[in-house]
Amino acid sequence: MIEIIPELEKIFISHVNCLFTKVNLELNTIVLEQNKELILPESAELYIGTESSSSLDTEVDLFVSYSTFIDVWLSKTLDRNQNQRDNTSPSQ
């Protein structure tokens, strides 16, 4: 989140005349192994959104969801498109 928040602020500041109702980010996951880091691209998703009927002058509820598409203890897991991903290295 430390890296995501400043990037979102840049987007929102540069689009002051826009109303954002949804933000959906594909994220990489870093798996720490014995002496190295393994980066799994597009292995997680962060969703931030409001109801579609939001307006500029109304306070609304904000929904936040974080999903991961890896199971570190499994030798094979599914990616976001339900295709099998080799997960041998992080599972050991």
Features:
three-stranded antiparallel beta sheet; 5 strands; 16% helix
Structure description:
It is a single chain. By secondary structure, this protein is α+β, with helices and mostly antiparallel strands. Helix content is 16%, strand content 39%. It is built from 2 helices and 5 strands, in the order αβββββα. The strands form 2 sheets. Strands 1-2-3 form a 3-stranded antiparallel β-sheet, with no helix packed on it. A two-stranded antiparallel ribbon has the order 4-5. A hairpin with a 5-residue loop joins strand 4 (76-78) and strand 5. It is elongated and about 50 Å long. It starts with a helix and ends with a helix. The model has no long low-confidence stretch (mean pLDDT 80).
Structural class assignment:
alpha+beta
Which spans have pLDDT < 50 for at least 5 consecutive residues? none
Q: How much is the radius of gyration in Å?
A: 17 Å
> What's the average pLDDT?
80
The strand line-up of the biggest sheet is 1-2-3
- The general outline is elongated
**Assembly of the depicted chains:** single chain
Query: Major sheet: size, sense and barrel closure?
Result: 3 strands, antiparallel
What is the rounded distance between the termini?
A: 27 Å
Order of helices and strands: HEEEEEH
In short:
It is built from 2 helices and 5 strands. The chain has helices at 4-14, 88-91; strands at 22-32, 37-49, 63-68, 76-78, 84-86.
